[in-house]
Amino acid sequence: MSSVQTIEVHTAPAYEVAIGAGVLKTCGARLKSVLGDCRIAVVTDSNVALRYLDAVCESLRSAGFSVCSHVFPAGELNKNFTTLSGILEFLAAAQLTRTDCVAALGGGVTGDMAGFAAAVYLRGIRYVQLPTTLLSAVDSSVGGKTAIDLAAGKNLAGAFLQPAAVLCDTDCLKSLPAAVFADGAAEAIKTGVLSGEALFSLFENGTLTDAPAEIIARCIRCKAGVVERDEKERGERRLLNLGHTIGHAIEKCSGYAVPHGHAVAAGLAVMARASERLGWAEPGVSARIAACLEKNGLPTGTDYPAEALARAALADKKRSGESITIVVPRRIGGSELKRVPVTELLPIITAGLEV
Ligand SMILES: NC(=O)c1ccc[n+]([C@@H]2O[C@H](COP(=O)([O-])OP(=O)(O)OC[C@H]3O[C@@H](n4cnc5c(N)ncnc54)[C@H](O)[C@@H]3O)[C@@H](O)[C@H]2O)c1
Ligand SMILES: [Zn+2]
Question: Which of 78, 135, 239 to mutate for ligand 1's pocket (most ligand atoms within 8 Å of CB)?
Answer without folding.
Answer: 135
